[in-house]
Specification:
There is one protein chain. This protein is mainly beta and about 500 residues long. It is built from three helices and 34 strands. The strands form seven sheets. A seven-stranded mixed sheet has the order 3-4-14-7-17-18-5.
Length: about 500
């Protein structure tokens, strides 16, 4: 309700213009700055000169100015696809704080040390605008998506402010969004909604404990998650007082995070390019194992023969990492089969037991990369001493189709009532291997390759003394022993 002005208020009203005029004139008379300062934008980028750089801080150079990488908060979440921990980042109003590195510019690091130490960098995949929640999991019993408001909300998000400590329970079961039943198709592998519009308003219906509630939430967060992994091992010591670091010449546009330092955006083009036309998620690595080499510790084990009851043990120093539950590992066989490693936290041991390990090179990947492995050993009950290895080399001057590698053998009288212990590996020019199929009835091992390139191929045959190799040959034409295609090799 408006109140009627009394006599005093009218007097004040008459005096005010004169007082205001005096206040406005005073700066002109005294030379002072404005009394009321504009509120500073705390998210604005701070541009520095080279003389203002602080030690051991990474800066993105843009012309003659430098902007510090942005130390965005990261959240750990387990991927439903790989089972690995992935870091996620949610950017809100601080989105504009992330500096941009353009092709040809450098990352600057001023430091008292004259020796450059390698830098580990994580590239982040953009998910897009979403609600500030992550780690949503499908509840098979209820059909809902489960959420913990204690652990899985991004700070400073609209969702955090709306749901944090304002719900009946900290355990929510999401039922619908904008009256559409929730489903796994709405979220990605880290449990983040990936089908929403920038700053869209969404009505979320959920059970909070036993109470059915709803809230209007805003998709105000730009989400990213771990994607690829790199190292910078060299830097130029410039005359300007800082190390100059560069991304690879063929680095892809995207968001990158210097471990322990902060995030920056990279545009693999000159400044002024329309960024809306640039893909930020184009893969750099051609295959998964190239990426594995970059972010995980790698160990290689090579078996000359097929081994039985193999156990691989790796002891680690539990004090070398902050979160022991982040330890994951896998072994990859020569034919690409993956085996998950087990972690025994009480013994600080990473291990895997195999009933049988095929001959060839096995790769073992352990993450996080900075975990300290103190001891590695392999135990097997197999007796290799009795096995004979024979090697046969084949050279092809040019590519050809439907090539069979065939091993024929003979057995002694004592072994006629049982399948002989014999197997063979085909080694391709690039070092990859393929085990030959065994047809005991015909006493033959074989592999059919629909297409091979020119080069040198090796067949390694392993057998006991009760078996004698008859011939090892190559043939062309249709597969004689089996209708299945065994392997496809392309350029």
């Amino acid at each position: 309700m408006l109140k009627k002005k009394d006599h005093k208020s009218r007097q004040i009203h008459k005096i005010l213009p004169l007082a205001l005029a005096i206040v406005l004139v005073m700066p002109l008379l005294t030379g002072c700055t404005n009394i009321i300062e504009r509120k500073k934008n705390k998210y604005a980028q701070v541009q520095l000169t080279k003389e203002e750089l602080k030690d051991d801080v990474y800066y993105i150079k843009n012309g003659t100015k430098f902007v510090q990488v942005y130390k965005a908060q990261t959240y750990n979440v387990t991927s439903t696809e790989s089972g690995r921990n992935k870091k996620t980042v949610f950017l809100g109003l601080d989105f504009e704080t992330v500096p941009t590195l353009y092709k040809g510019e450098i990352i600057a690091l001023a430091t008292k040390s004259t020796a450059f130490k390698k830098v580990e960098i994580i590239r982040y995949e953009t998910i897009g605008y979403t609600l500030g929640m992550f780690g949503l999991k499908k509840n098979e019993d209820t059909g809902t998506l489960d959420l913990s408001t204690d652990q899985n909300l991004a700070e400073d998000s609209n969702v955090y402010k709306t749901l944090r400590k304002k719900t009946y329970s900290t355990s929510l079961q999401l039922v619908s969004i904008n009256n559409q039943p929730v489903s796994e198709s709405m979220i990605n592998d880290t449990g983040i909604f990936d089908c929403l519009e920038e700053n869209g308003i969404y009505t979320l219906e959920y059970y909070s404990g036993t109470k059915l509630s709803s809230s209007q939430l805003q998709a105000d967060m730009f989400a990213l998650q771990e994607f690829e992994y790199y190292e910078i091992n060299e830097a130029d010591n410039t005359a300007n007082g800082y190390f100059a670091l560069s991304l690879p010449e063929d680095a892809k546009s995207g968001y990158y995070y210097i471990e322990g330092a902060g995030m920056f955006k990279y545009i693999a083009d000159k400044k002024g390019t329309n960024e809306l036309d640039i893909s930020m998620n184009e893969p750099y690595y051609s295959d998964e194992y190239s990426a594995e080499d970059a972010y995980a510790q790698k160990y290689s084990v090579e078996f000359d023969v097929r081994m039985a009851n193999v156990t691989i043990n790796l002891n680690y120093d539990s004090t070398s990492i902050n979160d022991i539950e982040s330890i994951t590992g896998k072994a990859v066989s020569p034919d690409g089969t993956e085996y998950s490693l087990n972690v025994d936290y009480s013994k600080s041991l990473i291990t895997i037991s195999l009933l049988e390990a095929m001959a060839g090179k096995w790769n073992i990947y352990i993450q996080p990369k900075d975990i300290a492995i103190t001891k590695a050993n392999i135990v097997s009950s197999a007796n290799q001493q009795e096995i004979t290895q024979e090697t046969y080399n084949f050279a092809f001057d040019e590519a050809q189709e439907n090539t069979q590698f065939v091993v024929k053998y003979k057995t002694s009288v004592n072994s006629k009532d049982k399948d002989p212990e014999i197997y063979a590996l085909l080694v391709f020019p690039d070092g990859t291997t393929q085990e030959l199929k065994h047809e005991a009835k015909n006493k033959v091992l074989y592999s059919n390759v629909p297409y091979i390139n020119g080069g040198s191929y090796v067949v390694k045959v392993y057998h006991y003394t009760d078996t004698e190799i008859d011939t090892v040959t190559t043939e062309t034409g249709d597969l004689s022993y089996d209708e299945d295609t065994i392997i496809t090799v392309t350029e």
